[in-house]
Amino acid sequence: MKALQRPSINTVGVYGDDGIGKTMLVREMKRRAEKEKLFDVVVMATVRMNPDLPRIQHEIACGLGLDRVTNEYTSQGASNLEKARQTEKKVLLILDDVWQPEMYSKLRERLPLVDEKEDSLLSYKILLTSTERAVLSNLSEEQFEIHPLEEKENWELFKKIAIDQDESIPLPFYAEEEIVSKCNQLPIAVTTLAKALKSRNPVKWKATYRKLQSYSHYEFLHSTLELNYGLKSEELQQTFLLCCLMGHNAAIEDLLKYAVGLGWYQGVDSIEEARDKVSKSVSELKKSSLLLDSGSNIHFDMHDLVRNFAIWSIAFGEVELDSWSTTMESIKWIYLSNAYGHDQLPDESNCPGLTFFHLSQEDPSKPIPPNFFSEMEQLKVLGLTKTWSVPGSISLLKNLNTLCLDQSVLAVEKLGSIIQTLNLQVLSLVGCNIEELPYQIMALSNLKLLDLSDCNKLKIIPRGVLSRLYSLQELYMRNSFRQWVMEGVNEQEKSNASLSELERLPRLTAIEVGINIPSIEMININLFRRNLARYVILVGDMWHSWDSSYGSSKMLKLKLDAKISSEHPVKKLLKKTEELHLQGLSGVNNVVNELDEESFQELKYLFIQDAQNVQHIITSRKHDGQHIITSRKHDGQNVDQDSRNSIPPAFPVLEVLVLRNLEKMEKICHGLVGGSSFSKLIKIEVEFCNQLKNLFSSSIAKRNLLQLQEIRVIKCSNMEEIVDDDKQGGENDILKELRFLRLEDLPKLNAFYCSCKRMTLFREQVASFSAAKLMKLIIKGCDNLECIFSSSMARGLNMLKHLEIRKCSSMKEVIFTDNNVEEKIIFPQLNILEIKDLEDLVNFNSGNCIVEFKSLKKLQVLNCPKLEGFIANTQTLFNQQVKFPNLEFLRLSSINIKQIWHISSNASVKNLKKLLVEGCGNLEYLLTCSMVKSFEQLMVLKISNCKMMEGVINEEERMCEISFPELDTLELEDLPKLTRFCLGNSNATINSNPAASIEKICDCEMMEEIIHSEESKEETISFPELHTLELIKLPKCTRFYHAENTDTPFLFNEKVGLPKLKFLSLSSIDNLKYLLTSSIVKSFEQFMALKICDCKMIEQVIISNELVEEEKMCESFFSKLDTLELEDLPKLARLSGRICHMLPARHLVIWRGDNPAYWRWFKPDPRFPEVAEALVNIIFQIHGRISTRMLSPKTRYKAYLVFKLADKPDGFKNKPIEAAILLGGAEVSKRNVYELQAESEIVGNGDHFPQERGDNWLEVELGEIEFTKERGGDLEIYLEERIDDNRRGVIIQGMEIRPT
Fold first, then answer.
1. Of 130-134, 168-172, 549-553, 611-615, which gets the smallest average pLDDT?
2. Between the CA of residue 168 and those of 152, 164, 202, 351, what are the distances in Å?
3. N or C end of the chain: smaller count of CB under 10 Å?
4. pLDDT at position 822, please?
5. Are 1051 and 1065 in contact (CB under 8 A)?
6. Crossing angle of helices 234-246 and 271-287, rounded to 10°
7. Nearest by Cα to 735 from 761, 711, 756, 715
8. In whole angstroms, what is the distance from residue 1160 CA to residue 1206 CA?
9. For the chain, how big is the Rg over CA atoms in Å?
10. Dist CA 936 CA 928 (whole Å)
């Protein structure tokens, strides 16, 4: 986790053996990252050996909360991306079980870049797991191995699972030494065995002990799985084996279809009852670790070890997976995926006992033979996924119960001729291309389940077909057919089905259907009067999502453009619905009174949007005109209890209420509500309801909203209070369970409850009530508020973890104190505090309080120009009265303070890891020298746009050591008065081992040197981990580090060590003449990229004495470069005295070089540029180009191809390649070259042959030129076939140009 927090690291890999616990570990890391808010979003997806990229993309997009699954931008393109750059959304992406680097690369390229909903740029950190380190070595910067459990850890894990909380029940004496010790330290073996033995009697333990004694460690895992399997019922065993055949991330609904077809549940005629049994079996198998959760409650997963155990041990000889053999007589189940292996299926199969067959056929060139199914008399379940052909022999399967042709390309006529002879119970055509449902389906008199989901081309269902399916229990048509014929409206369209046909299905209990109609009154069928067990019904053309927001089994989405008559059948459906979405509601003023007189007794989730006439959700029926008839006690505080009890409850089980764009809604509840109304409400969200002045009265809040945990009120322009004080209800607690509160863009909001002259969100009288359990509070755009809490209330926020306040133009302080008595306010659990765009904010607290944030890890204070300090009457932003001992992230922006920390603030920064300071125009320095030692955990330091800053550290005129041992990133930008890092006249020493890995210094006009030392002795400074350095717009800078007696004109002198520097970018450094000398080139061991632009005075990159050994050093330096960019350098005469240039293979144009079928790209060594290996027969064509500005004038150069040959090269014997060199477009050299033969084998003038180099590679000379400054343009090198033949087995490193 620490590695992932380093800015220089983007990808981390975790590897280890199967079953070692990699998935368990990364899931725990996901949980921890979410709990500690280390990232904005954490997403996890499983890749596996044969990844389904669209599925993985969809999972990632869903985890990110995005609608789109690609990295394409919106129509606004680059402007949206540029806008998103202003805000960054940190994402931790966990990819579990990666097998192929190529697949990961494809997935990485398709990751979304922008969250368009929040206009934010997605910044990824990626965590990978794999069984092989080799897979991760080129994909991640760091790799960590997962080691087996220690013996003590084995035992503790076993005890935790095997025994319940009652520790008084002892485990047998032999459990640890004889049983657990054989688990080979694999968590999967420990957990499986522990769950198998949990709550078993001593007899079972002894039997297990005797059985496992004879097994070796190698056999033990399978034996524990077998033991766990053996303890299951026959029903669970067969469910488990079928799950193993179905593989990873399989759907429980598919398992149901197969189980019904196999006839597992004798005596069970109901699909709903069978579903309950399947769900119960899956749950039991998950509890015993034989199955795993997949992140979705409608799917299941399993460990590869468990699956392999089931296929190759328990079911060996009875099932077949992913291959076809000639000996299949004993096989009962076959599940073939990936186009049934490598061979074609036989013309006829010999599988007399086969009952289950599944084939995923994605290759249309391998059709299923016509007679393939002719000998499968016992087949009960047939699944053909993504098939391009349906053989006619399927019609011979008289015992077939389930037929699944999902995602297949089907001919309607052929499909009809096949199914009319079958006796199916389940027919699934999910995602098929059919445009018309074959009429022969009416012959399926025993059909119980018909799934037509995602058949988005289906336009015709012949009239009368559905009504003949008398046994049909479940019909699924999500995202499918919507062309229903309305009775009495479009009678002329006799070709299509009508909704009234569904009335004639007496056994129908589950339905998913979409209906496009202009008016609800056109639906008048008695189907809606039935007690359907499950349904998803969408009425109207504006609904797109079929998924339930909360997993409910009865969901209705209804667009109403007119009132519903009192006798309309849909009203019966409303009474039974669990999740209801309403849109339009034309003519409806009161939702409850006009839609359900029984007040929605079973409704759990209610969403109402775009209803322009709605004034109230519920109105009490006990009223006279506009006045509620009530009886009150003398004090006027309490309503007569009899009045409340006589009112029937409304929404007694409602958990979620969402109201959007109800322009005329004045109140949610008008008048009294029954005693249990809203008693289960957990969440309420209100948005764009501009007539609403409050959500609820205080009496409702006290008596009814006893479970309310979340309130969101957004963009309601007239909202004044959240709770209105109606002087009723006594002194009961108000919203005592409230956890989450978001108030956004409410310009008239005065208070949460009981407004007063001082515009305070929370007054003292609710301090012990509504805020007692508050965990997250977001306030944005509430311009009336002057403060949030009183000091007494703030002391009661013991559960608050997240506080965010933005764009409140009148906010002067967050916490106000009524007196000047020193108080102590402690936020024990506050983890995140964000204060942004508060233009009038003066203090966090205006009193004399001590404010302690014990758990605060992230603090942002942005664009608060009047902020004087967290506490009033202080000279610093944070004085000794402000404490946050666990702070890790601090960002300060656009604050006009002169000093951030008080000298005694050391304890508050000891855990700080990331510090960002920007736009603080009055800040002269960041911290004092004496504070530096407290920043021992600092990893990132970025300072920008601080116009008055002269130094980062104020040395305080005394000797001190400056050390940031964990610093990973340093960026200084737009600091026009900055002269040096350390400010002062004293002798400051820099720690010799800083570990910065990214350093950027930009727009510092006064800086002459990056690091300065006036120590009399000569100091050497080393940056052993620095890999990226950017120096931009430093017009006076001449050197990186200046020590005494080293007044040289070079940017880097011999006192600077940069052994891991890889990327160096220099721009607009006007006084720079030279980069370094050849004598120190050897210290740049890993250099890869050099970019120099707009440096007006630079004359030469490297000064060389032209000694042979120094020339070789220069050649080595430039030969390692992947990138060399030189731009706008008017005085540059040469790069060095004598240099060579390597054009790596990636910089060459190679025939079909981007096609992985022809070329394999890899790194022979992690520090080596990528090379290209020809895998198959290729046409040898390579083109290289280099600017002559990179060459030294008046120098003769030779060009070489650097290569080697693979184990079995082919196509090179006696076959020349033509090499040509062009300078400025004119040919200057041309010859033949050979790549394999010795010179003695070929006779020909001008032919050149390969020579061995000192680095185990070969080179062949391609040509020779003499470069003069007058001969400008580009130098181009061409290699092309002379003979039309093919070659393979050559590995290309690149082209090298070096002086003779």
1. 168-172
2. 20, 10, 15, 56
3. C
4. 62
5. no
6. 80
7. 711
8. 12
9. 37
10. 14
**Beta strand residue intervals within 1056-1180, DSSP E:** 1056-1057, 1063-1067, 1074-1077, 1089-1093, 1100-1103, 1123-1127, 1141-1144, 1149-1150, 1159-1162, 1171-1174
Pairing status of strand 605-609 against strand 656-660: parallel
Half-sphere exposure of 415 (CA within 13 A, CB side): 26
- Of 498-507, 572-581, 630-639, 808-817, the one with minimum mean pLDDT is 630-639
Report which residue type is found at 1255: D
Other CB atoms within 10 A of residue 1170 CB: 15
Say if strands 299-300 and 250-251 run parallel, antiparallel, or are unpaired: antiparallel
DSSP character at residue 146: P
The better pLDDT of the pair 1096, 78 is held by 1096
Of the candidates 762, 745, 852, 778, which has an alpha carbon nearest to the alpha carbon of residue 816? 762
Model pLDDT for residues 1269-1286, shown as the tens digit of each residue: 555 678 899 988 755 556
**Secondary structure (DSSP) of 570-586:** HHHHHHH-SEEEEE--T
Asked if 311 and 244 count as a contact pair (C-beta separation under 8 A), the reply is: yes
pTM: 0.77
CB distance 675 to 649 below 8 Å: yes
The DSSP letter of residue 279 is H
How does 539-558 read in b/e, with b if 16+ C-beta sit within 10 Å?
bbeebeebeeeeebebbbbb
Neighbours of 1300 (CB within 10 A): 9
| CA atoms of 677 and 654, how far apart (whole Å) | 9
Angle between helices 187-197 and 217-230 (to 10 degrees): 40
User: Exposed (0-12), middle (13-18) or buried (19+): which is 1079, by Cβ within 10 Å?
Assistant: middle
For strand 1288-1299 and strand 1195-1210, is the pairing parallel, antiparallel, or unpaired?
antiparallel
In the beta sheet, which residues pair with residue 1063? 1028, 1089
pLDDT tens for residues 355-414? 999 988 777 767 888 888 988 889 999 999 988 888 999 999 999 999 999 999 988 889
Q: What DSSP state is assigned to residue 312? A: I
Which residue in 60, 18, 67 sits closest to 43, CA to CA?
60
659 pLDDT above the threshold of 90: yes
Q: What is the pLDDT of residues 685-699, one digit of tens each?
A: 999 999 999 999 888
End-to-end Cα distance, the chain:
52
Query: Residue type for 1108, please?
Result: V
Q: What is the pLDDT of residues 180-216, one digit of tens each?
A: 665 666 677 777 767 766 655 566 566 665 655 555 5
Contact at 8 Å (CB) between 1268 and 1154?
Answer: no
Of 681, 485, 716, nearest in space to 600 by CA:
681
Work out the average pLDDT over 993-1012: 73
For the chain, give the percent of residues with pLDDT over 90: 27
Q: How many CB atoms lie within 10 A of CB 254?
A: 21
The mean of the pLDDT values for the chain is 80
